[in-house]
Amino acid sequence: MAKHPFTVVRGGKLLDIPKRKAAPVDILIKGDTIAEIGRPGLAAPAGAAEIDARHRLMHPGLINAHTHSPGNLAKGLHDRWSLELLLTGAKWAHIDYSLEDKYLSTQIGAAEMVMKGCTSAYDLAAEFPLPSIEGLSAMAQAYEDVGMRCMLAPMVADISFFEAIPGLMGRLPPVLRKEVESFKYAPWKATTSQMRKALQKWRFEKVRLALAPTIPHHCSDDFLIACRDLAKEFDVPIQTHVAESKVQVVAGYQTYGTSLAAHMDKMGLVNDRFTVAHGVWLDADDMKRLGDRGASVAHNPGSNMRLGSGIADVRGMLDAKVNVGIGTDGASCSDNQNMYEATRLASLVSKVQGPDWQRWLGTDEALTAATQGSARALGMDKEIGRIAPGYKADIVFLDLHHINWIPTNDPVNAVVHIEDGTGVHSVMIGGRMIVENRKILTVDLPRLAAQAAASQARRAPLVGPAKKLYQQLEKVVGTFCPGLAKEPLHIHRYGASHHSH
Ligand SMILES: [Zn+2]
Question: What is the pLDDT of residues 50-66, one digit of tens each?
Answer without folding.
Answer: 999 999 999 999 999 99
